[in-house]
Every structure is written in structure tokens, then in C-alpha cells.
Design brief:
The structure is a single chain. The radius of gyration is 19 Å and the shape is elongated. Helix content is about 25%, strand content about 30%. The longest helix is centred in the last third of the chain and has 15 residues. Strands 1-3-2-10-4-9-8-7-6-5 form a ten-stranded mixed beta sheet.
Length: about 250
């Protein structure tokens, strides 16, 4: 599987640009349009989304006036520093006249090319698919793994179980046809034992075997979560920001 090509094709669809331009070395500005192939998360809801990848920034906005203001400020801006706090302040000031502010920013990972194994914890693993996951609705232990959102439904999960008790779970939601997002939870008294990494690794490999590209998203400040991704065989791939109304 060519993970990078699948990722670039999906992001090009999400941000309404040609895939080749994501590697062209120049910041891009595009009008946001509805496309059923987009990743469902925040699809069509945020007035502005910004993608940073391959040393460029891609600005995808509903409002042409916003795009023009962004062009004046960011046409030649070094995207490597776009997520700098000082730039966030600059962007918020630019967006304020349009009634917008930064809502969230995340770092995303895709599987790397290196082949390796991850030690598995001394417990059983159990798999759940589609409707079998409904038994965990409202279960506060797995709020990061399972979202129960009809727009990006939970499709597949693997849990660690010892003596009938679940210790942790990694689950994947179908954010698009080609890319499913992994989330993971480990119960508090079982953390730092490699369970989250092992479950994420197992789920990543199952999705790849099924022809689906898994991706992993987390906050830029969540170092523990980032370390789980890296230890499970993921590599940093892109960062993304979206806005909301003031």
C-alpha cells in the first residue's frame, strides 16, 4: 500500500486542491466546497481550515474575502512556523473582523515504512466490529477510542482483557472511505505498561491488511499520545487547524 499517495489524495480532496500541488513548495489558497469524499470530521462546518504539509500551508475557506486577507499575509510565509504561538495571535487578529477565531489544531500521523514488532501485554485481546461496539456507548473508560458519531462511525476495535476485565481499547472510525482514524484509551491503573501502544499497533496492522490507511491524530502538546503513535509505527505526516465563530 502506498500510504503517502493515499494520504495526499485524501488531503487534496479535503482541501480542494490538486494532489501534485501539495508537494509544489508554494502556499495554496482554495475555496471550501462540499465533497462527499472528504473526511467527515468538521467537513463543511469550519469556515476556515489550514493544512501544513511538505513545508507548505493550504488555506481552505468559505469566504473569498477571508482568502484575500490570508493571501496578503501568508503567500510567502514559512509554513514550518505556522503553528507558532505568535502566529496564532496574528491569525486570530486577522480573523476577528470575520467573526472567527482558532478553534483547534492537531498533529496527524500515518504508518511509517519501517517494519518492526511491538511486545504484546500478558493478556487476551478481543476484537469488536460495527454494531458490537454499541455495548460501550456511554462507557467513560473509552471516550477517546469511541466517538459514536454517525458522521464518522466507529467500525473496528481491539481491546486488552485480563480475567474478564478490559484494560484498554484502540478503535477506528471511518472518517473517509480510504482513511480511518485510530483513537486509544487505557484505564488509569493499567497505564505505562505498553497496552495502548500494543493495541494501536495491532489495529494499525489489521487496517493495512484490509486495504485501509489508518491515521492517528492528537494535540500538539499531548506528548504521551504522540509517543504511543511513534512506538506503534506511525510517523508525523501533517498538521491541521480549523476555526469557529467568536
Amino acid at each position: 500500500m502506498d500510504c503517502r499517495k493515499i494520504m495526499l489524495d485524501q488531503l487534496a480532496t479535503d482541501f480542494n486542491v490538486i494532489p501534485e500541488r501539495l508537494s509544489a513548495g508554494k502556499n495554496l489558497f482554495s475555496v471550501k466546497e462540499y465533497d462527499s469524499r472528504k473526511r467527515a470530521y468538521e467537513n463543511g462546518e469550519a469556515m476556515l481550515q489550514v493544512l501544513c504539509i511538505n513545508g507548505i500551508a493550504v488555506f481552505n475557506a468559505m469566504n473569498e474575502d477571508v482568502l484575500e486577507a490570508l493571501r496578503k499575509t501568508y503567500s510567502d510565509y514559512d509554513a514550518a512556523w505556522f503553528f507558532d504561538i505568535g502566529n496564532f495571535r496574528r491569525l486570530d487578529v486577522l480573523l476577528r473582523p470575520f467573526g472567527q477565531m482558532i478553534a483547534s489544531c492537531h498533529q496527524y500521523f500515518i504508518p511509517g515504512e519501517r517494519t518492526f514488532s511491538v511486545p504484546q501485554p500478558d493478556c487476551d485481546t478481543v476484537w469488536y466490529r460495527d454494531n458490537e461496539l454499541s455495548q460501550f456507548r456511554g462507557d467513560g473508560r473509552f471516550g477517546e477510542a469511541l466517538g459514536f458519531n454517525a458522521q464518522w462511525p466507529d467500525r473496528l476495535a481491539v481491546a486488552a482483557r485480563l480475567k474478564g476485565e478490559l484494560l484498554g481499547m484502540a478503535a477506528a472510525s471511518s472518517d473517509s472511505e480510504t482513511m480511518w482514524q485510530i483513537g486509544v484509551d487505557v484505564v488509569p491503573n493499567c497505564r505505562s505498561r505498553g497496552i495502548g501502544t500494543a493495541l494501536t499497533f495491532l489495529l494499525k496492522n489489521r487496517l493495512l491488511k484490509d486495504g485501509i490507511l489508518p491515521f492517528y491524530g492528537t494535540a500538539a502538546s499531548h506528548i504521551i499520545s504522540q509517543n504511543v503513535a511513534v512506538a506503534a509505527g506511525f510517523v508525523p505526516a501533517w498538521t491541521e487547524l480549523y476555526t469557529k465563530s467568536v
